[in-house]
Amino acid sequence: MAVLFVDPAFPPVSSSLGPGLPEASCWLRCAELWPRAALPPSPGDIVVEQGQVGDCWLLASLSALAASASAPRLLARLFPMADAVAGSVTVSLYAHGAWTDVTVDTLVPCDAECQPLFARGSAAAALVEKAYAKLRGSYAALDEGRASEACVDLTGGVAERVSVEEHGAALYARMMRWQHAGRPMTATRLPHLRPAGAAAPSVGDDYRAEPHHAYAVAAVGGGGGHGGHAVLLRDPRGRDEWVAFATFAASFEVVTVCTVFDGPPLLVADVGVDALGGPLAAPRWACNAQWVLRAPRRATVTVALAQRERAAARQQPLTLIVVRLDGGATRAWRCDAPAIEARAGGELGVAQREVHASFVAAAGQAYAVVPSLRSPAGAAGGGALLLRVWCDAPACVVEATPPLRRFAVDGVWGGDGGGGAGGR
Predict the structure, then answer these.
(1) pLDDT, tens digit, for every residue of 340-357?
(2) What angle do CA 355, 360, 365 make, to 5 degrees?
(3) Which one, 3, 221, 239, 308, has the greatest CB density within 10 A?
(4) CB-based contact 346:370 (threshold 8 Å)
(5) For residues 33-48, b (16+ Cβ closer than 10 Å) or e, as one string?
């Protein structure tokens, strides 16, 4: 009998589980738990059922991916290699600007009744969870997270957190368009985002969304006897339910929608601490590393800025500003409101691992893309930030020449000495 692969880098021992989680009574192969499982999986093979770790954010995102029209190509990317005979599976996750192949064995931690301790719905869900746990160091490291981050890591795209209250009834039409475009969606109830004094959700069909729990949006429109305006919610704990859109809007504060691009980014660049000058209000804002983008014809551009720090408690607010350049300028020296083409993030509010913005670039117009961090001195060294740029037409994007001197005199910049950033 052939000896099946056992991962020496993430072995079936307590240290792989991490602190605060129940001990495994045994570790069983996926083939024992799900004898008919197909790897790589088809969209219908992705069934999620959350276990004894708080990773609803990851499982809801995986479920949303599987429910989207983009699922076949996304799953093919997610599972580039599976050797069930040898007992190994490779899951490809997008980690800070690059696809990272994470190879794991097919052993799953189980309780005394030989049931998985964690993801229970399908072999595919259990293996994605295990690969993610290996990437983060343990299963315990999956406890709490953000669906927006999981969507990026599973697809290599960008994720947008949309306020349900701000969009109101118009959100339903947008969700329909997102569904048609094959964009995975999740929904989360975050009570702290409701205005002070706002009434608790009052819904007619007794649906109660659990606070701080992520759900996959499996379908929009039709179903459930709600007059066509309905949303199919898929709870990572194994419950599907159609709810009227009015109920949905009263029950959730945030919809996370993922955009997946057809090709690789036009630019992926690390931004080091030495290339950061501070947030928009700082006197050294113009010293932030900048990239100049120009497209020969009208084009839609998406820019995204991420920080390498994955622990939410240590993340800082990011700001990404796109400034129109006039008069042959080769970088932005100041940021007047009329010149701002797009911006994302801000110095105030909740820090996010990544922010992004999209805009339409005019033919021949030059734009400066300026990333910044609230406190560069408090960031990790090396490539503290990651800048990504996509364009749906040919375009040129180059790093702007650093300023000669990093200080301001009466609002005018000059002198010598400057930092840079590395592109890849």
Answers:
(1) 999 998 644 567 889 999
(2) 110
(3) 308
(4) no
(5) bbeebebbbebebbbb
